[in-house]
Amino acid sequence: MESVIIEKDIPVFYVTAASFPAGVQAAHEALHALVPFSTGRKYYGVSRPENNTGIVYRAAAEELYEGEGAEYGCETLILKNGRYLSITLHDYLSDVQSIGKAFQQILSQPGLDPHGYCVEYYINDKEMQCMVRMGGK
Questions:
Q1: CA–CA gap between residue 74 and residue 52 (Å, rounded)
Q2: Is 45 within 8 Å of 120 (Cβ atoms)?
Q3: For the domain that residue 81 is a member of, what is the CATH number?
Q4: Which residues contact 80 (CB under 8 A, 6 or more apart)?
Q5: Total number of domains constituting the chain
Q6: Tens digit of pLDDT for each residue in 53-63?
Q7: Domain that holds residue 36
Q8: Do the Cβ atoms of 112 and 86 come closer than 8 Å?
Q9: pLDDT tens, 85-126?
Q10: Which of 89, 113, 117, 115 lies closest to 102 in space, CA to CA?
Q11: What is the Cα–Cα distance from 13 to 18, expressed in whole angstroms?
């Protein structure tokens, strides 16, 4: 596990999965139907428990300019800057269960932001970072 710093807030727009974990793949497919994969854009998975209804999962893309998400008819959120605990997975598609295991390991650590998200940052088609923001700045 490592600590990474996100220097600036990251505005993203997203497609919400109909369910978790079953709807995750469909949410990513719906997002990529709106914005096809591009190396010039960062992609995320963003999740957390909400409204006592279980985990809400969002397939998200970085906004390249203000208002881009609205142009696609999507809601937006901000991934806050700060220090994140992170685990990098090097071949996540060969063991999708490793994603949940990485987040369980991170979520067992003290000092996490109680309002933060579990953030999947897709580095490329093989590597991803599992990250959770620490409390404070």
A1: 23
A2: yes
A3: 3.20.80.10
A4: 6, 9, 113, 116, 133
A5: 1
A6: 889 999 999 99
A7: 2-133
A8: no
A9: 999 999 998 988 999 999 999 999 999 999 999 999 999 889
A10: 89
A11: 16
